[in-house]
């Protein structure tokens, strides 16, 4: 959950706030919506990289190293 580290305080409490509207009820509902979105995104599994992404990583990051470190894709 490193992507939400800025929303966790020193006590370990997860904080969500909203000042979108002047209504406290609407802001509370907005906080619940934000919490649900954060939970859904934290529960998603990362996708496997595509062949294009693997090749891009290979050419951009590994190309400067000596040829003995290369492996076949």
UniProtKB/TrEMBL annotation:
Gene3D superfamilies: 3.30.160.20. This is Uncharacterized protein. It comes from Smittium mucronatum.
């Amino acid at each position: 959950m490193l992507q939400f580290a800025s929303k966790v305080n020193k006590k370990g409490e997860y904080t969500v706030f909203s000042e979108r509207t002047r209504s406290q009820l609407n802001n509370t509902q907005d906080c619940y919506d934000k919490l649900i979105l954060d939970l859904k995104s934290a529960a998603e599994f990362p996708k496997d990289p595509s062949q294009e992404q693997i090749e891009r990583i290979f050419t951009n990051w590994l190309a400067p190293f000596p040829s003995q470190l290369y492996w076949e894709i």
